Structures
1.
Amino acid sequence: MEKFTVIDDKNILIHSLNVDPSKLNRELVEKGISVISLTKKEKSLEDYYTNLIGGIKNA
């Protein structure tokens, strides 16, 4: 896995759209990491531009 961020002790954010969820799950379990769920989220174009200008308060 190239780029990821550990959010807390129960959440990891993976910065890639090309991850096979079944392969990811298998690799995590093989390394002793319990997986409760995998969720794919994509930001909208609106989210992208809102973050670009510094968030809602600056919009």
2.
Amino acid sequence: MWQVGRCSGPLRWLNLLRSSKRASKLRRFRLREPIRSIPLTASPTFSAWHHLVGRVRGRFDKVTGTITVSPDPAACSVDVTIDVSTISTQISKRDEDLRGDAYFDVKKFLTMTYQGRGIHRVSPDLWRMDGSLTMHGVTKVVPLTFKFNGTFSDTEPNEPARVAFHGTAGLKRAAFDMGARDNSSEVGDSTGPDVDIEIDVEADAASSTR
């Protein structure tokens, strides 16, 4: 079992990164059977275009989820739930606006979820999961690309080894029927993502029988 420490986000590395320059650090972590992480709270961050030239940055403070890790890339999975009422951009007036019916409409849609199964390599040190994001009552496939950052060197004796990942994703708010008033004034006619998401993951090795 792997316990996800601060931040949830999909993922898995063992047996999948042998060709990377960090592969030697992973040999003792090779998996022989599927294992499942313990759900913990996390805080992914986001940034969104603001009037075409600026960026609004924020986070969600209540996130729970479960990661399933397997030697078989097709069997790796993630199931994450985010309480959207916990959104924070450090400006209370803006946060209340984002919770309102022009954006997240938390009275109708209190949570959003990200669910995916299977990962594949997109470069020597990058992997991708094509998971489904359900937000504001709309479900779309939103690819999550992630990188293995390495192992922690200061693990105490008899403590589980810890590894870290960094994940990114992008989406358009209009695809989820959000921010209709932003279509021209905020994001223009761009066809690319207008919201970027970042997720940092730390995971501890533990017994798969726990």
